[in-house]
């Protein structure tokens, strides 16, 4: 499925928002603390939008739909054990999804 196409998992559609920035992660105080905790360069924030009103009682469906969505799989960055940033698609097989859903 091409990026931007609607996925039909659990009725949710997620889209990656690469233009969204998190300025609080680059303030002097934050970078100092991240460096102090050896986390500078090892943490990222990414934004995804979705097409429905969030309903707390459907939180499990929401989370499962998020991690199964093609746009999330192609764009969500994870830090590998080797210290390289990879997308969720490279480690998809490691997530414990219920095969019947």
Automatic annotation (TrEMBL):
Which Pfam family, any one of them, does this sequence belong to? CFAP300
Q: Which GO terms describe its cellular component?
A: axoneme
The parts of the chain that form a coiled coil are: none
Function (record text): Cilium- and flagellum-specific protein that plays a role in axonemal structure organization and motility. May play a role in outer and inner dynein arm assembly.
* Subcellular location(s) of the protein: Cytoplasm, Cytoskeleton, Cilium axoneme
**Name of the protein described by the UniProt record:** Cilia- and flagella-associated protein 300
Keywords, sorted A to Z: Cell projection, Cilium, Cytoplasm, Cytoskeleton, Flagellum
Main location class: cytoplasm
Give the matching InterPro entries: CFAP300
Source superkingdom = Eukaryota
Membership in a protein family: Belongs to the CFAP300 family.
């Amino acid at each position: 499925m091409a990026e931007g196409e609607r996925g039909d998992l659990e009725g949710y559609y997620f889209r990656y928002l690469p233009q969204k920035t998190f300025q609080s992660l680059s303030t002097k105080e934050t970078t100092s603390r991240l460096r102090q905790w050896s986390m500078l360069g090892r943490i990222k924030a990414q934004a995804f939008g979705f097409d429905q009103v969030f309903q707390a009682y459907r939180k499990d469906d929401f989370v499962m739909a998020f991690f199964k969505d093609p746009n999330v799989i192609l764009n969500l960055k994870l830090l590998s054990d080797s210290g390289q940033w990879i997308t969720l698609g490279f480690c998809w097989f490691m997530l414990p999804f219920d095969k019947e859903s």
